[in-house]
Amino acid sequence: MKTHLITNQQPSSFSEERNDYHTFHVSSTDQVFAAFWQRYPNPYSKHVLTEDIVHREVTPDQKLLSRRLLTKTNRMPRWAERLFPANVAHSVYILEDSIVDPQNQTMTTFTWNINHARLMVVEERCVYCVNSDNSSWTEIRREAWVSSSLFGVSRAVQEFGLARFKSNGTKTMKGFEYILAKLQGEAPSRTLVETAKEAKEKAKEMALAATEKAKDLANKAATKQQQQQQQQQQQQQQQLV
Fold it and tell me: Where is the stretch described as Disordered (predicted)?
């Protein structure tokens, strides 16, 4: 892997762009960098199936270069499913290059998908650095470019890709904060609240299922009773004859 792979990486032409920012107000760059390598799995990363480090090296100027291969689920919109064969892969393979610069307390990552490129290519660059207002905070700048070569629907594909980037970005930050809380020995309170909410929803589902089961049993019992009554009536009629 060349050292210029990320720093000189440029997004594809004819693409839609989106910028996003996030600040970890209680975490230093060291903590964020450590969480970055430990963030999978977490409760918000169910769409991440696998992760593998395929290359790692330290440069003469003490920068850490890494390349990871990630596999994620890839749910297409219904209108896009009609454009591809039914047996098209439902997983997307993503390459992630990263450079950690401990001297300047920065980390830069660049990710892009290596399959489904005909439908859509999503390229993302993240820069992690010390917040200018507080040196104990870490700031993240996320940029994404979405491009598509599909004739006639490229605009719709780009808009879908940007919307998914926003949705996945929210999950990414929640997962990041969850891991940071664990590393700092804190209870991830928001996750606990959400876990309680999930438990409540599950209890409602179980109660609904129990109600449906009770109705089913009651219907079966009523049907059986009707059958018994009919049999008794038939027996009585036969005796009269």
Answer: 213-241
For residue 171, give its domain range: 4-186
CATH number at residue 43: 3.30.530.20
- Cβ-Cβ contacts under 8 Å for 154 (sequence gap 6 or more): 147, 148
Site of tokens 């959400």: 194
pTM of the model: 0.69
CA–CA distance, 145 with 18 (Å, rounded to integer): 7
Per-position DSSP letters for the chain, written without gaps between them: --THHHHT--PPSS-EEEEEEEEETT--HHHHHHHHTT--S-TT-TTEEEEEEEEEEE-TT--EEEEEEEEEE----HHHHTTS-TT--SEEEEEEEEEEETTTTEEEEEEEESSSTTT-EEEEEEEEEE-SS-TTSEEEEEEEEEE---TTTHHHHHHHHHHHHHHHHHHHHHHHHHHHHHHTT---HHHHHHHHHHHHHHHHHHHHHHHHHHHHHHHHHHHHHHHHHHHHHHHHHHHH-
Q: Is the same domain home to 219 and 130?
A: no
* Same domain as 63, residue 108: yes
